[in-house]
Amino acid sequence: MNNSRNDNNQQGFLSGLIGKPTPEKHAGLTYSVAAIVILFLSLVYGCIPESAGTARAYLSFLVAPIAFLLMGIWYFWYTKTSVKTFAKAQNCHPKYYLLAVLLQIGLLSLSEVNTLFLEFLEKFGYEYVEPVLPNMDGAGFIGVLFVIAVLPAIMEDFFFRGIQLEGLKSFGTVGAVLLSGGLFALFHQSPAQTVYQFICGAAFALVAIKSGSFLPTALAHFINNAYILVLYKYKITSFSTPVYAIILSVSAVCLILSLGYLLFIDRQKTDKKKGKYGGFFLCASVGIAVFALSWISALFA
Hints:
The chain is an all-alpha fold.
């Protein structure tokens, strides 16, 4: 009885801060709370001594997935959403898994966009620092694959294309796609990858809106991360001109076909614009500020 009263008091306190609860306010609030949790866990991680070695290296990649897991628990409690109902809603037509994979292959053709943006930033003195990955020799690769490819794909898509996108849908397809892409790119706090991550985030949001599920994009996200890890493990930094030309051509065709289908052939009904941007940005302001400051600090570090 007391627990129920405390829950109502906490929800009433938040409602007093943000006004009448709406889907877009929930989306903004989850972003801000996630940013605070990630900031807190990052500070805790910073206290772990370097002597922790491999364990410390793994933990650095677990901060965001743990934060998003906690956010999911909080979201289901705060919005009184049934986990069973949410999980059931993720069922979608198998074609969207194929479309998501084709789209991810297609996005590889835009990797040069990342290179061009990095070169632009370097003109202002920015130096990109490669992330330090745990040892991938032998069975170590399985652990790295799980921590850097599997978990982020599941948890990030659960958060961005699952619980958060649900609130952004009230802005219509275009508004939701652009906002989701921007929030996804800012969350990564990586100046060098901002443009590519925005494109990926927006493309994944489009698939999630059309399919009504975050699972197809989680699969595509995993493939992207696993592909990068394989290249890193085998120290593949470039391809011969003929091979690169083939990869680029196939990738471009996949991008055109998948986007063409999603934009012009798929006729899934989507919400019409009716949400208020002011309420969203008010609730998301803390999260945007936290990630933006981190992005800026990384740019001038």
